[in-house]
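User: Modeling request: complex.
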Amino acid sequence: MSKREHLLKIGVSGIRGVVGGFLTPGLACEFAQAFGTYVDKGRVVLGRDTRSSGEMLENAVTAGLLAAGCEVIQVGILPTPTIQMYVAAIGAAGGIALTASHNPPEYNALKLFNHEGLFFNNYERAELLDLYHQSDFYQATNEEMRGVQVHHDRPMALHLERVLKHIDLARIRARRFRVALDGVNGAGSLMSVHFLRDVLGCELHAISVDPTKVFPREAEPRPDTLGDLAALVRRERCEIGFGQDPDGDRLAVCDETGHVIDNDDALALVADAALERVEGDVVVNLTTSSVIDAVAQRHGRRVFRTAVGEANVVEGMQSVRTAIGGEGSNGGVIFPSVHLCRDSYTGMAFLLNRLANSPGTVSERVAALPAFFRRSSKVAFEHGRLGPLMQSLEAVYPEAQINRADGLKLSFPDGWIHVRASNTEPLLRIAAEATTAARAEQLQMAVEGLLRSR
Amino acid sequence: MQRAKALRISPVGVRGIVGPGLTVTHALDFAAAFGTLLATDGPVLLGRDPRSSGQMLRSAAISALLACGRDVIDLGIVSTPVLQHAIRRLNAAGGISLGASHNAAEWNALKFLGPAGTYLASSEAGELLDIYHLKKFAFVEWNQIGKLTYSADAIDTYLDDLARIFDFEKLRKFRVVVDCCNGTSSTILERVRDRFNWPLILINARLEGSAFAHEPETSARMVGSQLGPLIQPLQADAGFLFDADADRIACATSRGEALSEELILPLVADGQLAKFPGRIVLTNLSTTALVEDVAKKRGGEVIRVAVGRQAAIDALSGFRPEQIAVAGEGTGAVMLPQFRFVYDGIAAMLMILTIMADRGQALSEIVAGFPKFAMLKGEVPLKQMRIPQLYTELREAFGDEGRANTLDGLRVDWPDHWFHVRVSQTEPIVRVICEGRGEAPQALFDGLMEQVRRLA
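Assistant: Request completed. Predicted assembly structure:
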């Protein structure tokens, strides 16, 4: 059972799979028709990333939505956050982005948004899934058929306008930053070049910004996948480097020495910049580094923690007055004044704004953050075994402060352990953090030792 | 047997009322089956009529074909003949025509065309159905997926070909009114008007998604509804009515009289045989016997096959194009060998006008020269399914001394009259047709109808 390859997943996060034999046009079309039935013949915004299967799925989803009596607003190749904002901006009934985010190019997925341009919450997802499984879709007649509209430039302009409201444009432009960019030939390629070079006036050195080409590297922006970006930063003596994922929601940051900084630190830097400008608390997931607590404390704000997953963080953000949120581990910042979604453009803008407004290089700013030592690993794991493991782990650390919102998180004065089952794969994710490297290693080994002994 | 007649899946393709019958899933699976079936390399072309549901079917077809690794060229809203023409010109592997022809607006259909631009032969069509039912489609890996492009010059290159066959300089002296029925003939004829400086008068020329001015049926009745009354006030030489995908026509004389749709084939056969004597006229068993008279006069031969487009397509594959004068049926649909056997209403219209020009005769005069036949048509709901018994009893009761043909139902011929009784392919009814030279064989028809009602 756990040996099964995850070539197709239809579940609470929508529908994701390997194109070809698994994520077929028929499946995408039916799911879209269920979605169209769910939003009751409304307008639906449809966009996609640059994957080779994008056009095929765009047509399958368009067909399904039209068949359900929806009007389809095609926005073409755009970052996911841009699509989400546009859904809310034009008062659409919902939106669909065709992107498998950081997954390899053979994958694709349907990401689903409600009328506010937010990821479907658990209730909405369950409702939609029921509709899908019942196969009781609305079948519009010729008389009821609505059409397809293509909206080209407006979504991007709207997104960038919103971001620009929160930065000091003149100051950034005056600095003429030397910036490196790795767009992974993704949905943000053209928009990022336009934003950094034309709008923010940077001296831009960009690689992989051709949306017609395949991903030149592993799609997830991480230190080990951003070697070309780091080399580019060094070669062109850039002040900062940005690495995007194929749908432009995640951001990785490279300092001026060519070192790709930890995503938790990048989040902390952006949060620091955001808290400078807006009121409100911070919401992050349980696996996000404690560095965020130090930054929040500096501004006198609180930190709330949620289960892992963008939708969970966003739900958390809706329940408190939030200045900024995000998920440290995967490089996403969520700035609600722009939109309640992960947005690499907000991240880039805030970091450049910060550099423009105060002295110090990126590496100096990272060095100024409190130091935490982080370790993470993933272990093949059967879902049903998490409960017993949690119980034994608790027994080992009776003094720990316990959080069971997503797996088990044990917090100590000098660190924490978080174990949780992956939502998408039969994996156990283990994360540990401490103020010393030795303690972090000790905590992680404790869990792995327990796993081995069972 | 009175179940909803909202969907029909047959070797000719899939046709139905969108929503309750024809769904996006049918379109997707059929297009995927077609993408799986295609043997030759090359792109697949798409064209559609203006029905609102066309865009939905189009997206479904594109998606399935791309997923099968086929490049797709979308011609947009074009007539089926224009699409068929483009398939040959672009060396495509095939094409899908989305449109429900003469059916009402709520219908739509997918029609499949092979690399020559012609409808699939029965064997290929059967294969397509098998793949459709098996649902084992040849979807390719992510990096083999096809690309979508658009082509906007299909109508002009189609007109290039028409201009090689028809003398527009000669035809443009005619004052012609055309009822486009809000379908794809309008974009072609608007282009003809501009390109050949021919002031055609077009009515119902706006492409409509659902609000057709009237049913897109090419019948004498429909000619009478709007087109006919306009002809005399506009002092036109002739009037033509097209269905939504411009593959068939009906026409009216300069006096505004609607001609029976049965006359289109004899008219075109007359013109073609005058030019190409000795050739074959291919038609079905239900078409008027006037075809034989025309052929005899012009030294041609008539071959009759079962009713339906598929039978004609299959039969034609056994001949070289230069053996055929014309193929067609009594509905106003004709195929010319110059166009490799594509039902083409525009070509049929131009052919009729060419005959008028060559002979210097009005349409009414040409028709007046034909021997008179009178036809009676009836239909009876099919309830008992005792079809072989029906044919046997009819033959015993009515067939004495006649020449019987059982290729498709029962047709019996006498020197001056004939009848044809068959079960419809599209609806659960029995069709009864009688025709006589001069006068209609009313007594025979009444007797047949009574017997059929009893046995059907």
